Amino acid sequence: MTTSPDQVPDETSSGPAAPGTGAGRPDELALAVAGLADEDLDKAGRRKLLGRMLVGLRERGVKEVFMPRKAINWITEAVSDLAPHVPVRSLETLRRHYPGLDDEALAERLIRNAARAAAGVGAVGGGMASIEWAVPPTLLSTPVLLATETVGVVGIELKLIGELHEVYGQPVLGTPSQRAVSLMQGWASHRGISPMLPGAAAATVLGTATRKQLRDMVLKRFGRNLTSLGPLLTGAAIASYLNRKATRRLGDDIRRDLRDKRNRQALPPGSADAA
């Protein structure tokens, strides 16, 4: 059954989410990301949700998106504002949504769904200009569309990372802001989040090397979305393929790291492999 973009699925969070009060209404952007993550969402619904993100992100000021260097900072800051509000489902909710699956099968389903959702965002591509929804014409310029697509895909991937941690018994803890820092750290490094770096400690790390890593990853994703400028449906098809591939790789990397960490924790204390 196709999910309407106005009916966001039950996305019970693993912790309380603070209401959006900053630019771009992060709470509404998070709802749009939750809808975009639905693998059954049709193209019309995906366009409408991306349109909702366009309108929300305009409050950040879109002028910087037209300057290449500042565009990456604009996207990075937009992701940082969105991250505390990304709806991560608890393990209990995931079990209810996908009954009968063991941990590995559940992780595979989540990765597959996220990859399909990211591919769907890429497939929309240049078709965004045909949104039958109230989007100001000034927001339908190519740089703004590509920036919005990038933020949408990163949001889907942050959600995937949080839910994979739930599956492997290593939920991301802390306040919404602390969880956001951890999720962005995991996204930038393609590794599971270290429980030894909660809260302020993680924020310190993100403020140094990880912040550059985050910007570099955003640059790669934005560059990949440029492929949607190809002729007619060719560009959208390539963007869809690359989005699916990149999200799949991220999910597999995070799953592998989380599985290894859980296996090491299960070993008897003092064993060589537990070190």
What does this structure look like?
- Residues 1-24, 129-135, 198-205 and 229-233 have low confidence and may be disordered.
- The longest helix is centred in the C-terminal third of the chain and has 35 residues, at 232-266.
- The protein has 9 helices and no strands.
- The chain has one domain (26-265).
- With 275 residues, the chain is mainly alpha-helical.
- It is globular and about 55 Å long.
Short description:
This protein is mainly alpha-helical. It is built from 9 helices and no strands.
Series of H and E elements: HHHHHHHHH
Radius of gyration: 18 Å
The figure for the number of domains is: 1
Q: Could you give the distance between the termini?
A: 48 Å
Mean pLDDT: 74
Helix content: 55-70%
Please tally the β strands and state the result: 0
* Largest sheet composition: none
**Helix count, DSSP H or I runs of 4 or more residues:** 9
Shape: globular
What class, by secondary structure content?
mainly alpha
Strand content bin: under 5%
Which spans of ≥5 residues are poorly predicted at pLDDT below 50?
Answer: 1-24, 129-135, 198-205, 229-233
Question: Can you give keywords for this protein?
Answer:
0% strand; disordered N terminus; mainly alpha; single chain; 275 residues; 9 helices; globular; 63% helix
